[in-house]
Amino acid sequence: MNEHYSQPISLVETADHVSLSAEYFSRLFKEKTGENFSVHLMMLRLQQAQKLLTETNDKIYDIANQVGYASASHFSKLYKKYMGINPEEVRKEQEISKLR
User: Fold this and answer.
1) Percent composition of the chain: helix, strand, coil (DSSP 3-state, to 5)
2) Where is the HTH araC/xylS-type domain (predicted)?
3) Domain boundaries, the chain
4) Alpha-carbon dihedral of residues 40, 34, 31, 50, nearest 10 degrees?
């Protein structure tokens, strides 16, 4: 998951890959990580996006695609909800810090 977060990943496919039922895999995953599969995947994507926002000059829609989101709008909404700031504001803060 950590290497393939940018690709479409489903719980069912991942469970099949390790020869477990989706229900059992889901339960094990939550026991081991404390998060459900989809939340864990989303947070991996958002954390990588945060890194790309601060370390590259890539466009926000390109970053959204790089981390597995086809829609930049959907990505921006999720980023704001879970990271507390929208991607555009991250970029503005980055520009301001470069000027100091």
Assistant:
1) 70, 0, 30
2) 1-93
3) 11-99
4) 30
3-state SS string for 2-21:
CCCCCCCCCHHHHHHHCCCC
Rounded to the nearest angstrom, the gap between the alpha carbon of residue 79 and the centroid of all alpha carbons in its chain is 8
User: Which residues are CB-contacts of 1 (< 8 A; sequence separation ≥ 6)?
Assistant: 9, 14, 40, 41, 44
> Which pLDDT belongs to residue 69?
96
Per the CB < 8 A criterion, the answer to whether 42 and 3 are in contact is no
Question: Tokens 């929208």, residue?
Answer: 86
In the chain, the percentage of residues whose pLDDT exceeds 70 is 99
| Least confidently predicted of 2-6, 42-46, 94-98 | 94-98
pLDDT for 32 beyond 90: yes
Using a cut of 0.85, tell me whether the model's pTM lies above it.
Answer: yes
Query: What's domain 11-99's superfamily in CATH?
Result: Homeodomain-like (1.10.10.60)
